[in-house]
Amino acid sequence: MNDQSDGTGDLTGGNFTKNHLQVANLTVNSVLSPTWVNSFTFGYQFWNNIIDSSIVTPYVTFNAVSECSGRM
Fold it and tell me: What predicted TM-score, i.e. pTM, was given to this entire model?
């Protein structure tokens, strides 16, 4: 789906989305005694989301003009 469209144009043209996600987790558990457990957890996350247009020219529209040529 093209979330940058106003609904009057081609929904497949012009825009693109690139997503990049990296996730890493590290957990270390240590049993110190029969009643003591130590747990260490480290997490890393990187998220990059680009929504851009491949069209480098300006988008120009003109409003429709109608003229009445009837007699009054």
Answer: 0.43
